[in-house]
Write a structure and sequence with these properties.
Strand content: 15-25%
Number of domains: 2
Protein name: Mab-21-like nucleotidyltransferase domain-containing protein
Number of helices: 11
Order of helices and strands: HEHEEEEHEEEEEEEHHHHEEEHHHHEE
CATH architecture of the largest domain: 2-Layer Sandwich
Shape: globular
Number of strands: 17
CATH topology of the largest domain: Beta Polymerase, domain 2
CATH class of the largest domain: Alpha Beta
Bound molecules: zinc ion
Radius of gyration: 24 Å
Distance between the termini: 39 Å
Family: Belongs to the mab-21 family.
Helix content: 25-40%
Structural class: alpha+beta
Length: 416
């Protein structure tokens, strides 16, 4: 395990040195370890590592302003650099118009392409030196075989054959500027808004308080939900909730958690996910809360649901694409724990062995439910309701999903 991580870390350092040699303007002078491997919340194998290489040109940044004029900070920034002071010039295509003071904004999409192309060139160079081998197949990575597999959000993703197996490495280059008031931060290229041009601030070291960091019991809850969402995806649904959004959901829950055990926290998250956003609450749609003593469960499937970012209150994560998938799995789990005498499905569930899971008669009903919802979700013109029914020992659970499409996607608001 340690050998695996050391292998990855040395490889990353080697790549960054070569990137700086090939394109001195893209030299880096620091590396921040991010992601679940480093914060100890990785489930399953260490097959993904995240890094923020710090661009040395950070020191020539002259101006940082908020990109939007919204009242609450959404973390989006416009950044200008003093082009005249750069010891190694950036190609003009990466820069906007240079003003009379020699300052320009970045063309962040060009910068991203250039980073990716330079990494590929670095890998080719390393191959000539015998340190790595490019994998022409783009699959079945043997040890030391590597490829740049393209952009993964604002990161360049490399896939490599490492000691414990094929591993993805995300290199998300950043600028390191003045710290945020909560702690050290970096600025990464914002790829959510087309055309590119903005940067997003990300705080890399948060204060040690319940407001920002998960308490030990809630770390367990986080790992549990990560596992559930991972499995939901493996069972064929499109549930792709980011770790960051999931963590934020739990941070909100943590603020007013009165639960005495993990099960109660789990149910409280179901409640939170079932609660309507402020805009929706005023509408005259059916309203219900999760009552786990009842066998009839009503889920409200709308296109405007999100959670507020706890660090940048002006920003929220839209969750409407994953919320119902996750709720189906979570409600299924609770109903089966409560109403089935035998819980041997649980061990299979925890095995993370998809073949075993698919073969299990009880777990198949979860998979069927998720598949039915997938079809329902994709057929936009069909019925407004989907009914799922699960047979327990003596009783049945009925889950009724009502689709409510707003004529417009309402501004995603927070649910607290
Ligand atoms: Zn809790």
């Amino acid at each position: 395990m340690e050998e695996h991580t050391t292998f990855v870390e040395n490889l990353v350092k080697d790549i960054l040195v070569n990137v700086g040699k090939i394109e001195p303007a893209l030299a880096t002078n620091g590396l921040i370890n991010r992601g679940s491997y480093y914060d100890g919340t990785k489930i399953l194998h260490p097959d993904e590592y995240d890094y923020h290489p710090i661009l040395a040109l950070s020191q020539y940044i002259t101006d940082v302003t908020n990109a939007s004029e919204r009242h609450e900070d959404d973390g989006k920034r416009k950044i200008r650099i003093n082009v005249n002071k750069l010891p190694n010039p950036l190609p003009p295509k990466c820069l906007g118009t240079i003003n009379e003071n020699g300052e320009a904004e970045f063309k962040t999409n060009e910068l991203l392409y250039m980073l990716s192309a330079t990494i590929s060139a670095a890998l080719e160079h390393m191959e000539t030196q015998g340190t790595v081998k490019l994998n022409p197949r783009f699959k079945q990575y043997r040890r030391n075989e590597i490829q740049n597999t393209g952009m993964h959000g604002p990161a360049v993703r490399l896939r490599v054959g490492a000691p414990l197996g094929t591993t993805d490495i995300d290199l998300c280059f950043c600028l390191k500027l003045e710290p945020h008031e909560l702690g050290p931060s970096v600025h990464i290229i914002n790829t959510e808004h087309i055309p590119f041009g903005f940067w997003t601030e990300s705080v890399v070291e948060l204060p040690n308080s319940d407001e920002y960091k998960l308490t030990p019991p809630h770390r367990k809850l986080f790992l549990t939900l990560k596992y559930v969402s991972n499995l939901t995806r493996l069972l064929g649904s499109q549930c792709r909730i980011s770790s960051y959004a999931l963590r934020t959901l739990i941070i909100h829950h943590q603020q007013d958690c009165r639960a005495s055990n993990l099960g109660e926290c789990f149910i409280s998250i179901i409640d939170k996910l079932m609660t309507k956003s402020d805009e929706e609450r005023n509408s005259d749609f059916h309203d219900d809360e999760y009552n786990y003593d009842e066998e009839f469960i009503y889920l409200y499937d709308s296109n405007g649901w999100g959670i507020q970012n706890t660090i940048f209150p002006g920003k929220s994560f839209p969750l409407h694409g994953v919320r119902i998938h996750l709720l189906i799995s979570m409600v299924w789990i609770i109903q089966h724990i409560k109403l089935n005498r035998s819980n041997n499905w649980w061990n299979v569930f925890l095995s993370n062995n998809v073949t075993e899971i698919r073969r299990n008669r009880i777990l198949q009903t979860l998979m069927d439910g998720l598949n039915k919802y997938n079809k329902f979700d994709q057929s936009r013109n069909a019925s407004k309701y989907l009914r799922l029914e699960w047979q327990h020992d003596d009783k049945n659970s009925v889950v009724m999903i009502q689709r409510v499409l707003f004529p417009f996607v309402p501004f995603v608001s927070s649910v607290n």
